[in-house]
Amino acid sequence: MAFYKDERLALFIDGANLYSAARALSLEVDFRKLLKEFQGRGRLLRANYYTAIVESDDYSPIRPLVDWLAYNGFNVVKKPAREFTDREGRKRHRGNMDIELATDMLETAAHVDHIVLFSGNGDFRRLVEAVKARGVRVSIVSTTASSPPMVADELRREADVFIDLEDIADLIARPRRETQDSPTLDEDDED
Q: Is the pLDDT reported for residue 142 higher than 50?
């Protein structure tokens, strides 16, 4: 990974996208390790985590993670997920944080040297292009090791550096277990 100790750094984590990529690799991200890893790579000014939360439920599986992140060095940006009924009549939830992430990333670009975007969403290609035009280096963290790959090819090409989640798993994930029978925090479906 190409980082410089004196550069001002910001992390932008698309929570649902990172969860999906990690799950495809059978990884469980340890956010304490992730934060420490990037604090050691430069002057980390901000670590933003974006997620939609189901507000109507008494218990949301993402809420303990969001609470932990908010108390442990992350700026959590959240909004209520919208409820809808699918074709089979099941209640589903949808929440898209793309606009919030894009707006914050463009505003932050004036204050940092390097942005690390944890997402494989191809819709962010133009955002990465705009941030690079402001003189900021952009690294994308996602994976091509899953089938299908979790990162859009056009996003990967636009980035200054692509970091495969599989390659940094030892640095930012909990040790892999033999079986994956235990429950994990789950993100809601997103657009």
A: yes
pTM assigned to the model: 0.86
pLDDT for 86: 77
Query: Looking at the 3D structure of the chain, how many domains does it have?
Result: 1
C-alpha to C-alpha distance for 156 and 179, rounded to whole angstroms: 31
- The DSSP letter of residue 62 is T
What is the spatial distance between Cα 27 and Cα 29, in angstroms, rounded to a whole number? 6
- For residue 183, tell me if it sits in a domain: no
Q: Is residue 55 part of a domain?
A: no
Alpha helices, DSSP H, located in the chain: 15-24, 31-39, 63-71, 98-108, 125-133, 153-158, 169-172
Q: Which helix (H) or strand (E) holds 105?
A: helix 98-108
CATH number of the domain bearing residue 105: 3.40.50.1010
* Per-residue pLDDT band at 171 (split at 50, 70, 90): very high
Distances from the Cα of 140 to the Cα of 66, 111, 152, 165, angstroms? 22, 19, 11, 10
One-letter amino acid identity for 120? G
Q: What is the dihedral of CA 61, 66, 53, 55, to 10 degrees?
A: 80
Q: Which domain holds residue 126?
A: 8-43+96-172
| pLDDT given for residue 75 in this prediction | 97
In a domain, 59, yes or no: no
CA distance 94 to 84: 8
The values of phi and psi at residue 140, to 5°, are -110, 135
